[in-house]
Amino acid sequence: MSYLRFEKTFMTNLEETLPREILRTNRSGAYHCTTIVDCNTRKYHGLLVVPLPELDGENHVLISSLDETVIQHGAEFNLGCHQYWGYNFSPKGHKYIREFNCDKVPTTIYRVGGVKLKKEKLFEHNQNRILIRYTLLDAHSETTLRLRPFLAFRSVRQFTHENSNASREYREVENGIATCMYPGYPELFMQLSQENRFVFQPDWYRRFEYSKELERGYEFNEDLYVPGYFEMTIKKGESIVFAAGTNEAKTRGLKRTFTIESNERTPRDNFYHCLKNAAHQFHNKAGGHHYVLAGYPWFKCRARDMFVSLPGLTLALKEISAFESVMDTASEAIHNFIKGMPSKLAVYEIEHPDVLPWAVWAIQQYAKATSKEQAWNKYGKLLVEIMDFLRHNRHSNFFVHSNGLVHINGKTKAATWMNSTVDGVPVIPRSGYVVEINALWYNALMFVADLSAHYGKQDYARRLETIAASAGKSFVRTFMNQYGWLYDYVDGDTPDWSVRPNQILACAFDYSPLDIRQKKSIVDIVTKELLTPKGLRSLSPKSFGYNPNYVGPQRDRDYAYHQGTAWPWLAGFYFEAYLKVFKMSGLSFVERQMIGYEDEMTSHCLGSLPELFDGNPPFKGRGAVSFAMNVAEILRIMKTVNEFE
Question: pTM above the 0.85 mark?
Answer without folding.
Answer: yes
